[in-house]
Design a protein that fits this description.
By secondary structure, the protein is mainly alpha-helical. Helix content is 43%, strand content 0%. The mean pLDDT is 83.
Length: 74
Amino acid sequence: MIRTQISLDKHDYELVKREAKAMGISVAEFVRRTIRLGLPARSQAPWMRYAGLVESGNPNSSQTVDEIVYGSKD
């Protein structure tokens, strides 16, 4: 593990400390987890982090994905 140093303003530090305490983890572990959430997954294409964020309202959308993305055929 590589040690690094960051600077936070007082308000942000207090929020981080409060969240870490509520989760039962250290501030350092909270920061590591938060950074991991912001980074793209290593094994996935960058666009995959957005998969599943949009709902079409159509329960059969996985079967008609081209029609949903590109529109219906004329």
